[in-house]
Design a protein that fits this description.
Pfam families: GntR (PF00392). InterPro entries: Tscrpt_reg_HTH_GntR, WH-like_DNA-bd_sf, WH_DNA-bd_sf. This protein is mainly alpha-helical and 126 residues long. The protein folds into two domains: 69 residues, Arc Repressor Mutant, subunit A, CATH 1.10.10.10; 35 residues, no CATH class. The chain has six helices and two strands; from the N terminus they run H-H-H-E-E-H-H-H. Strands 1-2 form a two-stranded antiparallel sheet.
């Protein structure tokens, strides 16, 4: 994994774990990689992974079975999506709307491009 300089590594690791959960690579109820194993896989200090896991436990995405390990919560997908949506709206939408306004881009064009993107990605549900 290539880390960005503008965001703490533990936050990027948490985002990676969330992505694995959303796409089903780490399904609900499954035991996840240990702190040490994920640290080795990502070539980071295990303390950094622990910080990411602690953050995800705080959100209720992961839970600990004492002596067994960490597991993906039953409602993890919903919690991850809700958290990421909240972050996205707060972090990116204000500038996005500002650019739409400054460049005079109509919402219809955005909708059209979004629909084309979904079709191109094979995720068009219509």
């Amino acid at each position: 994994m290539e880390f960005k300089d503008n965001e703490p590594i533990y936050v990027q690791i948490a985002a990676l774990v969330c992505e694995k959960i959303i796409i089903g690579q780490w399904p609900t109820g499954q035991r996840i990689l240990s702190v040490r194993d994920l640290g080795v896989e990502l070539e980071v200090n295990p303390n950094t992974v622990m910080r990411a896991y602690d953050f995800l436990q705080t959100l209720g995405v992961l839970y600990n079975k004492r002596g067994v390990g960490l597991f993906v919560a039953d409602d993890a997908v919903e919690k991850v999506k809700a958290h990421r949506k909240q972050e996205f709206v707060a972090q990116y939408m204000p500038d996005f709307f500002k650019q739409l306004y400054l460049l005079d881009i109509p919402m219809e064009e955005i909708v059209s491009q979004y629909e084309a993107f979904k079709k191109e990605q094979g995720i068009d549900k219509n």
